[in-house]
Predict the structure.
Amino acid sequence: MQKVLDSDFCTGCGLCSSVFPSKVDIGVNKDGFYRPIIKEKLDKRELSIFRQFCPGVKVLSFNHEAPFRNKIWGTYFSVITGKSSNKSVLDVASSGGAITSILLYLIENKTVDYVIQIGVSEDNPLLSKVFVTNDPETLINNANSRYTPSAPLVDILNLIDSSKKYAFVGKPCDISALKSYALIDPVCSPIKIYLSFFCAGVPSYNSTISLLESFSSRIDFVKNIRYRDGSWPGNFKVEETSGKVHEVSYNQSWKNFFGPTVQTRCKICGDSIGHNSDLVCADAWSSSGKDGFPTEEIKTGTSLVISRSKIGETVLREVLNNKALTVINPTYDINDLQFIQPGQYAKKQYVLIRLIALFILFKRPPSFPLQFLLFGLLKSKFSVAIRNFLGVFRRVFIKGKL
Ligand SMILES: Cc1cc2nc3c(=O)[nH]c(=O)nc-3n(C[C@H](O)[C@H](O)[C@H](O)COP(=O)(O)OP(=O)(O)OC[C@H]3O[C@@H](n4cnc5c(N)ncnc54)[C@H](O)[C@@H]3O)c2cc1C
Ligand code: SF4
Ligand code: SF4
């Protein structure tokens, strides 16, 4: 575990503290990320368990039953674009509200008893807290993206009641960790469906602090923070208790604050498009194709939804039949994703070469299924591959880490 922490390959998911609560705590470190605090070393048996689920060590491949495989975007049953048919959801959601609409459907139709997801912590509006809820209002309140660390697995094993059924929402790495743990402990079997989103990486807690400082604001002034407020893609918006409001555009918040602070593990993530999720959602915006930032601002967003497993496909069809989601494109061509998600497309092209460079430097990077990585590299230009390979060496030698 110490090796994962020293090499900074921890995602901050929190699962180790749930599995070994007497030995591991979780806290936000000085770099602004959730990280385990080791109170007592794990013994040999515990370490062997840890290695089987920690996404800083390895990510396994699930979802083998899907009929289609795209070399870059992975296995799937279907891909659609659409938006929530519920105006209250659309008003607060990050994209088209697909995730929240699906959660509402799952609760209303009793497919699951509860949803496990993150929302805002009452103690600190910049931090995230885990909610186990079946209250529609809470689900809607917890919509929107939080570009700040979250550790949805920090107490997960205590939260699951074996007599209930759950839907879980988390980052792709949270889902890979939990599904891997489920292979060795049946405690996770009440989780019936795993939902995620395309993930550009977790920005540091400190980047939100810097954003506040850029408005001459402070954490103790804050009444409410929304990372994507208003029209799509939405502004970063702070309301102070004094009534003052500060806003900055999505593009500026990511270019100047969040993007540069994304944690190390995210820069070598082979699973940031949710290969292991049952349903994975993303922004279906039009982009310049260069940097992945949206080229236009419009009133409400559109969601892309990929079903990757049988349960994911069944739920997606039910949600569409029930008109909880209004379809825009029922058969989205997955090859077009490279134009609206160029950041993820680029990542697929350079991740394997970065991992190889780290391996050569004896950094023991996490392992990913080869099919998540290989085909992207084959699409990569030679110059891009070399630049990334040398970039890893330069950063490791100069900064000591990626
Ligand atoms: C760190 C991060 C990086 C992202 N990168 C990309 C990207 O590269 N490309 C892209 O298309 N989309 C990305 N997204 C996702 C995008 O912002 C939307 O969340 C996604 O399209 C789902 O929109 P929605 O309207 O369906 O979700 P909503 O209906 O708004 O629901 C959002 C759900 O996500 C959960 N959630 C929000 N923030 C977090 C978090 N930090 N950790 C765990 N769960 C969270 C909420 O609890 C809620 O259940 C990212 C999101 C995050 C949090
Ligand atoms: S990635 Fe998750 S399981 Fe691994 S060390 Fe970090 S918090 Fe623990
Ligand atoms: S980029 Fe990968 S490692 Fe980083 S938060 Fe997203 S899924 Fe986890």
In short: DSSP finds 15 helices and 15 strands in the chain. The chain has a mean pLDDT of 93. The pocket of iron/sulfur cluster (ligand 3) is lined by residues 11, 171-173, 199, 201-202, 265-266, 269, 271-272 (CB under 6 Å).
